[in-house]
């Protein structure tokens, strides 16, 4: 439980901040009935302050600098705020209100909960008055500043209606130095209705603990690397309908370190997902892969181990498993394999193409696109351009012949393969 503390509110910053998006921040203390401590704002914006709460804020200027350490609850905005490197610690909450522009100095970052505590960053823009994080440089460019990072204990963090631009420099907030504008490592309350653009690297990374409770309606544009990268444990928290402006975008799934171990929907996006390495749905996973989803694999396999994955495509919007290569060919990736499952796998209206290299397709390295038990229900699906069989099982279901096979030989690998008409 977060301890109670006196809150300092820093309102009425009526500065004319530069806003490259065209939105101007303005406002004042609305007199909501609470007792508010109002601090005059400061002058020395070219130095990095120290101190806790409002004590480290500069004074005498219309565009104050955030302190190096926020250790007591602090509210800033609306108007202009400058920032270099700020850590939110000791269970404190930094709240940034609608209409605030945060001008980030070169190499700057904002880190909630650097020591794994329950500190929080609450950024509450609105549709008409977003909060803006932007470069403080006279001529802004991607990579001018580093990142906003939500640490593992910062589950009460919330970022809505916020614009992030010019970030993405390798971030010194943590030893791994992630190359992204925003990194979330806690099940934060929300990351929604935000815009992330002009990053020198990725836009947002959702780490192992980053299963955000509401992740919806975000927009991405002009980022140097794929705008969104998610750990498998955070994948199901990403709602469909994220907006990607660039035609070559993908959503990266980093399959290296963990598994999908929850129930939910793997939502379709307007761009493909790209699986980096081997991906597993674990025993606690119960996943519906939504119609219209495109899954690119970079050479390895997708395994469902003692879990559930329902491939829920439709005739108009099949689920596509395909190569991540620019010039795809048969054998670019391994397989979709179901092992130790407790119920019949369902694969409805899927497309399997360019599979069959055997990598990660069980320890036996089977060269087939789909591997699983004879109880698999495979309907309305297409298999094409494969380096091996379409389906491998100990026993094959003759009903699998009702699917579509284009240039595949053999169709099945099993003890007594059926002869399809």
From TrEMBL:
Coiled coil: none annotated. Residues 49-61 have a biased composition (Polar residues). Residues 1-22 form the signal peptide. Keywords: Signal. Residues 31-48 have a biased composition (Low complexity). The keyword Translocase does not apply. Residues 19-64 are annotated as: Disordered. The keyword Signal applies. It comes from the Bacteria. This is Right handed beta helix region. It comes from Nannocystis exedens.
């Amino acid at each position: 439980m977060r301890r109670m503390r006196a809150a300092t509110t820093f309102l009425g910053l009526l500065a004319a901040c530069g806003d490259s998006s065209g939105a101007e921040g303005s406002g004042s203390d609305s007199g909501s009935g609470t007792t508010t401590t109002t601090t005059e704002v400061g002058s020395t914006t070219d130095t990095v302050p120290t101190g806790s709460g409002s004590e480290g804020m500069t004074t005498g200027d219309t565009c104050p600098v955030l302190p190096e350490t926020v250790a007591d609850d602090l509210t800033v905005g609306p108007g202009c705020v400058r920032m270099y490197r700020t850590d939110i610690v000791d269970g404190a909450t930094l709240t940034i209100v609608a209409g605030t522009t945060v001008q980030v100095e070169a190499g700057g970052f904002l880190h909630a909960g650097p020591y794994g505590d329950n500190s929080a960053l609450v950024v509450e823009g609105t549709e008409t008055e977003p909060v803006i994080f932007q470069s403080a440089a006279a001529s802004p460019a991607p990579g001018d500043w580093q990142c906003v990072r939500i640490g593992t204990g910062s589950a009460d963090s919330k970022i809505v209606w916020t614009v992030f631009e010019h970030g993405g420099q390798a971030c010194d907030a943590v030893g791994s130095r992630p190359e992204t504008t925003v990194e979330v490592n806690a099940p934060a309350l929300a990351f929604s209705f935000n815009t992330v653009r002009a990053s020198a690297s990725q836009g947002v990374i959702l780490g192992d603990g980053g299963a955000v409770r509401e992740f919806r309606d975000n927009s991405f544009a002009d980022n140097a690397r794929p705008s969104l990268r998610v750990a498998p444990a955070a994948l199901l928290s990403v709602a469909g309908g994220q907006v990607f402006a660039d035609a070559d975008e993908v959503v990266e799934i980093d399959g290296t370190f963990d598994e999908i171990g929850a129930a939910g929907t793997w939502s379709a996006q307007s761009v493909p997902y790209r699986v980096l390495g081997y991906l597993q749905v674990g025993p606690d996973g119960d996943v519906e892969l939504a119609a219209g989803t495109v899954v690119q694999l970079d050479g390895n396999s997708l395994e469902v181990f003692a879990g559930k994955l329902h491939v829920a495509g439709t005739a108009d919007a099949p689920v596509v498993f395909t190569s991540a290569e620019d010039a795809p060919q048969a054998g670019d990736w391994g397989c979709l394999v179901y092992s130790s499952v407790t119920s019949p796998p369902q694969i409805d209206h899927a497309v399997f193409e360019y599979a069959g290299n055997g990598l990660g397709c069980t320890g036996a390295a089977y060269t087939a696109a789909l591997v699983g038990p004879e109880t698999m229900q495979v309907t309305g699906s297409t298999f094409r351009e494969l380096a091996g069989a379409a389906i491998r099982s100990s026993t094959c279901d003759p009903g699998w012949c009702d699917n579509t096979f284009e240039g595949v030989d053999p169709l099945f690998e099993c003890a007594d393969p059926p002869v399809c008409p």
